[in-house]
Design goal:
By secondary structure, the protein is mainly α. The chain contains six helices and two strands, in the order ααααββαα. The protein has helices spanning about 1-25, 30-35, 45-65, 70-95, 115-135, 145-150; strands at about 100, 105-110. It has a two-stranded antiparallel ribbon. The longest helix is centred in the first third of the chain and has 25 residues, at about 1-25. This is DoxX family membrane protein.
Length: about 170
């Protein structure tokens, strides 16, 4: 049962990153506007973040989808989610009126059109999926499980899991 929960967490988090990254990559100009709207980075860094963020999200999504380096990918996802929640929270605290741009779009919105509490709750939920995978990276249908089986670390039905070793 726990392995099924882990598999759903891994695939759900993979879907989040793949969709988010693809939507940002499809409209790089709007992604730049979204990053600039947070008003926390120097201009030179906003360009770098706007280019790198969708690529990082896609890589995380692919790793999680494949179940490759699951614990590492979950840790990286958690760090990124904490940064995103902090960015949303600081925008809210500073009285900025922006859309987070988490799933494309983003940038300035009319006063009263922000959805900061919903965005923070949603991203916190995604962070909980990452925490689950950090604590218990074993999932079905994963490259990690296949690699473990190939190294003789696992036999039988559990060979489909991503838990290469207890410390992973």
């Amino acid at each position: 049962m726990l392995d099924a929960v882990g598999t759903l967490a891994r695939l759900g988090l993979a879907a989040v990153w793949l969709v988010s990254g693809a939507l940002k990559l499809a409209d790089p100009g709007q992604t730049l506007i979204a990053v600039q709207a947070y008003d926390v980075l120097p201009d030179a860094l906003t360009d770098v973040v706007a280019i790198a963020l969708p690529l990082v999200e896609l890589v995380l999504g692919l790793f999680l989808l494949a179940g490759l380096a699951t614990r590492w990918a979950a840790g990286a996802a958690l760090v990124l989610l904490v940064v995103l929640v902090a960015g949303i929270a600081q925008s809210w605290a500073r009285g900025l009126s922006i859309d987070c741009g988490c799933f494309g779009g983003g940038g300035q919105v009319a006063a009263g059109q922000t959805e900061y509490p919903q965005e923070i709750l949603r991203d916190t939920g995604f962070a909980l999926l990452a925490v689950w995978l950090l604590a218990r990276p074993r999932t079905w249908l994963s490259v990690d499980g296949w690699l473990a089986r190939g190294r003789g670390n696992s036999t039988g039905p559990e060979a489909d899991y991503s838990g290469i070793a207890e410390g992973n």
